[in-house]
């Protein structure tokens, strides 16, 4: 048995699963059905998104009065400050609004708070400085909905404040001239715009036309901020990716170059290439270079800024790696107090990357994680948290909001500032809340499976059909499919052999598969077993050849596994993974065997307290089958490793038949006497028997008193009592050894596995019958 790493959720109905027996199943239709899209109109809108399907901006509350105030500021020559955020959503939103105001002839500038000295969002001091510098109107983008203190300060000093945001609304709203927020707009149909999406709507309304020049920026901010890629977000992103592919922005051209993004840009290019680099500047230093990169029209300046940002991103990766290593060590030492929610904290940690670190911890430990940077000089701790699907971290935090100096975010991600002496109390409160809410299975990463497929249903065109649903992201995940087959050509690949490549065979069909990060599973999968696999389909291009490939997300083997290393000299190499598992490495005979595993002698086992283990390693053969059969029924292992050979043992494959015994007896009658020492080669040559076979027959006859032996000369007894061969203990022992070797050594793989399963399952069935 090989357990899956994640919890598999088949998202389609059982009736749909039965329908999939039909090889003509319409994959795209089923995927759309999984997303609640069944009607013809809905299907067409989803597969063919049109800009004309976007909602009118004026449906957003606050837009009309915001436009009036901005136009007044432009007419009066007032200075306008765009107050943005330091992530990819924030810097793209800032760029859109700055370019919009510039086109309208406004006197404007932008401000991005420093994560390390100012924290998240608008702050009173920044607003006072803005007022002192002559600004009379501040417009926030992607921030501000929780900036209560800053908003009060703006009102106090006579600074008009327009808030545009999309983050979670708290119990109260800040005081502002206007607030533009989809969730505060009852007439606006779509509530999940990103911050850049809200800024785009404001820009469209201010400009009086649809600003296609901003679509590339909208796509970046929307994808990077992980909002649902449905409805308007899907439309804006679809067209934005096309725009980004052919963008004429020098900054984005340079950024694509340093990120090695070529050809048609997709959501993964943003998620793993562009987004992290734009985020990196604000995580380590200041986000100004990111905004400058997007605003510049100078190719040389763009190249310099892109190079700088790329170097910052490399530094960010190194810092993240160091902190993750430290955090893992902390978690491993504090499992008792971090049982349901992980909270780790340390002085000196870079708070700008703690969200990434928390995400890594969630993936490693499968529970919510909060990482905090301790600041003794200010008596505070600041950081970020990330959560699992089953636990709303924002909601849990809101229950105890009095614990925080600052708090915000959404269900899966939060940011917080807390007094230093409240960290331990926070850990206790969140762990108790999670423990009360969550069941054990909730702590396993969820893997949603959209469809079960057979390999013969798949072609290169299948991937093209599936890609009609792109761009993929939140709310429209890249689909994962369930397949099964026999794994062949298993091999480790990668510089550190940390990836697994294999071929999945189903009847006469084969599919290439690769599982990143699963390299050490190469010895945990038997090519004879049926492997159940979940993954995404993709097209692999190599040397001009395109082929279908499965990118494996998870796999499992249900039932018992047999790993057949009988007679192999290299079995040690195949069981290295057992060191970290519960196993029993068993030896029946008392002869030296070299192994790094802890070896247990059979005669030292307490038969009344034999432990149940997942993995049983057999280093040699037992004395008889019954001995092993009884052991298997007690241990009930899921995996059996047959690592034995016949070295130093008698080979019983040539066990004599009754006719063999008759022939040798007749031979003695004719010869009267047989000198085994002198004549064994002659007899062996004539009969084709091994010498051991002749010796066995003689020993059986001697035990039954059919013959007498004098100085290796064998002759018949004068008077012989009629007896059966089975009356001989020696014969019985040989028969048992023959059976043992036939079952355990000379059987083929399937025969040995069937016997192994029968010994375990018969015991299980017996327990079920007896109500155990």
TrEMBL record:
Entry coiled-coil feature ranges: none
Keyword hit for Cell inner membrane: no
Listed GO biological process terms: DNA recombination; DNA repair
Pfam families listed in its UniProt record: DHH (PF01368), DHHA1 (PF02272), RecJ_OB (PF17768), ssDNA-exonuc_C (PF10141)
Matching InterPro entries: DDH_dom, DHH_sf, DHHA1_dom, RecJ, RecJ_C, RecJ_OB, SSDNA_exonuclease_RecJ
DHHA1 domain mapped to chain residues: 340-432
Occurrences of domain DDH (ranges): 79-222
GO molecular function list: 5'-3' exonuclease activity; nucleic acid binding
Keyword line: Exonuclease, Hydrolase, Nuclease
Domain RecJ OB: 449-554
Domain Single-stranded-DNA-specific exonuclease RecJ C-terminal: 561-756
PANTHER family: SINGLE-STRANDED-DNA-SPECIFIC EXONUCLEASE RECJ
NCBIfam families in the cross-refs: recJ (TIGR00644)
Family to which this protein belongs: Belongs to the RecJ family.
Entry protein name: Single-stranded-DNA-specific exonuclease RecJ
Underlying gene: recJ
């Amino acid at each position: 048995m090989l357990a899956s790493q994640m919890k598999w959720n088949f998202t389609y109905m059982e009736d749909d699963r039965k329908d999939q027996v039909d090889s003509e199943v319409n994959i795209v239709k089923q995927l759309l059905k999984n997303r609640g899209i069944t009607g013809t109109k809905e299907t067409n809108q989803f597969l063919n998104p049109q800009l004309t399907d976007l909602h009118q901006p004026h449906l957003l509350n606050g837009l009309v009065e915001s436009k009036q105030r901005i136009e007044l500021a432009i007419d009066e020559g007032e200075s306008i400050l765009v107050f943005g955020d330091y992530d990819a959503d924030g810097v793209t939103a800032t760029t859109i609004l700055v370019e919009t105001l510039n086109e309208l002839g406004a006197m404007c500038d932008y401000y991005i708070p420093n994560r390390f000295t100012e924290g998240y969002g608008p702050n009173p001091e920044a607003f006072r400085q803005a007022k002192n510098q002559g600004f009379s109107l501040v417009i926030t983008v992607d921030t501000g909905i929780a900036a209560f203190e800053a908003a009060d300060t703006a009102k106090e000093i006579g600074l008009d404040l327009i808030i545009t945001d999309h983050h979670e609304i708290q119990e109260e709203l800040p005081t502002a001239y206007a607030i533009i927020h989809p969730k505060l707009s009852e007439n606006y149909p779509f509530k999940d715009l990103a911050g850049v999406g809200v800024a785009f709507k404001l820009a469209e309304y201010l400009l009086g036309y649809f600003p296609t020049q901003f679509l590339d920026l909208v796509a970046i901010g929307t994808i990077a901020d992980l909002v649902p890629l449905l409805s308007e977000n899907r439309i804006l992103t679809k067209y934005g990716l096309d725009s980004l592919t052919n963008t004429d922005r020098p900054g984005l051209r340079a950024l694509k170059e340093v990120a090695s993004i070529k050809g048609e840009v997709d959501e993964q290019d943003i998620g793993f290439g562009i987004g992290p680099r734009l985020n990196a500047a604000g995580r380590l230093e200041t986000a100004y270079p990111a905004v400058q990169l997007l605003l510049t029209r100078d190719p040389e300046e763009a190249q310099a800024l892109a190079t700088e940002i790329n170097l910052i991103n490399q530094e960010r990766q190194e810092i993240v790696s160091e902190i993750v290593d430290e955090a893992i060590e902390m978690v491993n030492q504090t499992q008792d107090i971090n049982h349901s929610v992980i909270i780790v904290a340390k002085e000196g940690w870079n708070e700008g990357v703690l969200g990434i670190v928390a995400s890594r911890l969630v993936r490693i430990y499968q529970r919510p994680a909060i990482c905090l940077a301790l600041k003794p000089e200010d008596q505070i701790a600041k950081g970020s948290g990330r959560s699992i699907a089953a636990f709303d971290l924002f909601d849990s935090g809101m229950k105890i909001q009095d614990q925080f100096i600052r708090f915000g975010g959404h269900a899966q991600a939060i940011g917080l500032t807390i007094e230093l002496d409240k960290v331990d109390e926070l850990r206790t409160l969140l762990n108790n809340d999670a423990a009360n809410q969550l069941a054990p299975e909730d702590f396993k990463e969820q893997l949603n499976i959209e469809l079960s497929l057979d390999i013969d249903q798949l072609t290169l065109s299948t991937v093209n059909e599936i890609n009609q649903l792109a761009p993929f992201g939140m709310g429209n995940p890249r689909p994962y499919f369930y397949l099964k087959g026999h794994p062949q050509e298993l091999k480790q690949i990668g510089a550190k052999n940390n990836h697994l490549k294999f071929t999945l065979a189903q009847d006469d069909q084969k599919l290439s598969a690769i599982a990143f990060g699963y390299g050490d599973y190469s010895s945990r999968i038997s090519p004879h077993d049926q492997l159940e696999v979940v993954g995404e389909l993709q097209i692999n291009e190599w040397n001009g050849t395109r082929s279908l490939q499965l990118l494996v997300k998870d796999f499992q083997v249900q039932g018992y596994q047999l790993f057949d290393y009988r007679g192999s000299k290299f079995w040690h190499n195949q069981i290295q993974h057992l060191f970290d598992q519960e196993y029993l490495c068993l030896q029946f005979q008392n002869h030296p065997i070299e192994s790094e595993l802890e070896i247990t002698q059979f005669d030292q086992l307490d038969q009344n307290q034999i432990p149940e283990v997942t993995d049983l390693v057999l280093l040699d053969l037992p004395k008889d089958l019954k001995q092993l059969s009884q052991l298997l029924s007690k241990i009930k292992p899921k995996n059996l490793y047959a690592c034995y050979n016949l070295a130093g043992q008698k080979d019983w494959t040539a066990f004599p038949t009754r006719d063999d015994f008759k022939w040798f007896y007749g031979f003695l009658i004719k010869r009267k006497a047989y000198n085994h020492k002198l004549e064994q080669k002659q007899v062996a040559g004539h009969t084709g028997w091994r010498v051991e076979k002749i010796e066995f027959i003689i020993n059986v006859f001697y035990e039954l008193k059919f013959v007498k032996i004098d100085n290796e000369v064998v002759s018949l007894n004068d008077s012989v009592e009629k007896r059966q061969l089975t009356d001989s203990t020696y014969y019985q022992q040989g028969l048992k050894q023959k059976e043992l070797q036939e079952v355990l050594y000379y059987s083929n793989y399937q025969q040995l596995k069937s016997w192994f399963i029968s010994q375990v399952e018969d015991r299980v069935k017996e327990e079920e019958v007896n109500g155990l």
